[in-house]
Amino acid sequence: MLVLTRPALGFELSFGRFTSAGEVDSPAFFLQQGNRALLVMTMTFRRQREAGFSFVEAIFTIAIIGIMSSIVVAAISNASRDASRVMARQQQASVQSALTAWVMAQMRVSSNSAQFQSLENIRVAYNAMSVSQRFDQLVPKPNSSDPNRRAGFLDQTTADHFADYTSNASQLQTLALYNSQQYLTLPDWQTGDFPHVDLVNM
């Protein structure tokens, strides 16, 4: 260590190497005048710390980034799930509207007849069908002689979308329903009620 003493000024200036726990050995100036040497050492220590991240600081930074990333991913996932549920509700409403139109069309014995049949007769015939058969009544049939069956009650694009994603005959599926972990079903038509479409959680 090099020491320079100035008795007239009352201080001692020394140059040496400063080593602290967790820090690299580095050169430093020490001004010895009462407790001022501690001030120089503290400044040297801070300058050494400001040169980069310590191991503990790096660990905390990585942990904070990980927490923020998980929050962002969860928010995006929830937003996607919410959008799928909204679309699933819209598809339920479309099928319900088609089913209601089908019932109204069935009240006439035929498209060329002025005779009507009761809702009870339609209900019995409806309940005799399976879920897939009930849904099939809504799908357009281009080769049918019946104008109502030919036009269908559900648009062809929606009907094709259900056909592409439905694997269980009793659970009607689309991409939106799959993403929201839901499905549509057509339960039995209860007495005194109207047929309806149920949206069910898996």
From TrEMBL:
The chain crosses the membrane at residues 51-76. Pfam families: N_methyl (PF07963). Keywords: Membrane, Transmembrane, Transmembrane helix. This is Type II secretion system protein.
